[in-house]
Amino acid sequence: MPRLTRTQQRGDIVLALVLFLGGMLSAVLSSISGLYGDEQGSLAVALVYVAILAVPIAFRRRWPSVTAVIVSVAYFLAVTFRIPELYAGNIAMFIALYTVGAWEQNRRRATIVRIAIIVGMFAWLFVVMFQDATQPVDPAFSRAGAFSPFVAYQLLMIGVNALFFGGAYYFGDRSYQQMRERAALEERTTELEAEREVTAAQAVALDRVRIARELHDVVAHHVSLMGVQAGVARSLLDRDSAAARETLTGIESSARTSLNELRHLLETLRSPGSDSDPDTAPTTHGLTSIHALCDEATAAGLPTTFTVVGEPDRDPPPLVQVNLYRIAQEALTNARRHAGPDATADVRLRFDPDAVELEVSNTGRRGSSTPGLGQLGMRERAAVSGGTIEIGPRARGGFLVRVRVPITIAEVTRV
Questions:
Q1: Backbone phi and psi for residue 316, each to the nearest 5 degrees, phi listed first
Q2: Rounded to whole angstroms, how far apart are CA atoms 407 and 199?
């Protein structure tokens, strides 16, 4: 439940002041009009009674049950001793009972206090009705008949009091429930704000990881390829200038390709209207580019074969295609760096009815046993595509990278 604010406390003080001024006016007019005839109390007592009603109302939300008891007792005494004021008392009674239902934190106490006051008031009403029924008959107010004026008046009093106390009870409970719902909604809103901040931070972190992965794949592959080609060109420079020139042409082509991919990545990041995910951009590589990737590896000194097994019933989504391409690229780059000069590589692309599988294996040395950023990037790409990946040395020597992406997952990724 929300705490009592200064604005609400000031509002209660203003309400008490208005009730006091209205009660004073009601007491003066009731005294002048002779509300109870010759038996009514003095005006001074009525003004004191109005003050007793108003002061607790100023603290009604701080001590709701105490306020209700004080107002009820004061109202009972005022009517019993015929103090000339009724209207401010009725209003104060309704406000006090409503406040117990709306602001009492102890709900058991709220129920007990209200039921006790309502039962007491109705018991008092029935006592008064019994006294009126046993008084001498007033010729102008007949009691004859089941629906005589007297019976009708008593039924009217019962109905009015039932609506009065029932309304105060219902609206108090309803207000309490609404405040609880409002407090729960505010708490949930605060939680959602915190979750949104966490989600935004996670999105930024994922973007940084994706950009870092893409830069690593682009730069590491082409720089590694250019390094190998430069070594070949240096060894051929004195013996075979034509072969060296061809190798240098390959270095130039690799440099241009690397710069083009970097430029495309930067354009994607700078352009707010473009696709924010460089993996899904239309100009990136796909499964059809794996054959050219194998040719590049062969030209760089790693004899590589490429085999396609089966035919796809449908093309995998662009995200899956580019991730499989990057995995093959990283696997071949690692093979060139770690497998040794006499190593060979084999790339197989399999299309099953329910999955697409890429396998890159190489002979030679197994390489470093400590996973690096390349292996981490391959695992991340496989996870993003909804597939599984195996990375590790082969039993008969060399290294193996196998990734499998279910077609159903790929279709969901496309949607």
A1: -60, 160
A2: 29
Answer positive or negative: Cα dihedral of 226, 230, 233, 235.
Answer: negative
CA nearest to 76, candidates 24, 26, 116, 132 = 116
Task: Say if CB 314 and CB 250 are below 8 A apart.
Answer: no
Q: In what order do the strands lie in the sheet with 304-309?
A: 304-309, 345-351, 355-362, 399-406, 388-393
Radius of gyration of the chain (CA): 44
What's the rounded Cα separation, in Å, for the pair 125 and 165?
Answer: 13
pLDDT digits (tens, 9 = 90+) for 212-258: 766 766 666 667 667 766 777 777 777 777 777 777 777 777 777 77
Number of helical H runs and strand E runs in the chain: 11, 5
> Using CA atoms, how far apart are residues 150 and 148, in angstroms rounded to an integer?
5
Percent of residues in the chain assigned helix, strand, coil, to nearest 5: 70, 10, 25
Q: Evaluate the CA torsion angle 74, 76, 78, 84 in order and state its sign.
A: positive
**Geometric angle at alpha carbon 332, from 375 and 381, rounded to 5°:** 40
State the Cα–Cα distance between residues 378 and 376, nearest whole angstrom. Answer: 5
pTM over 0.85: no
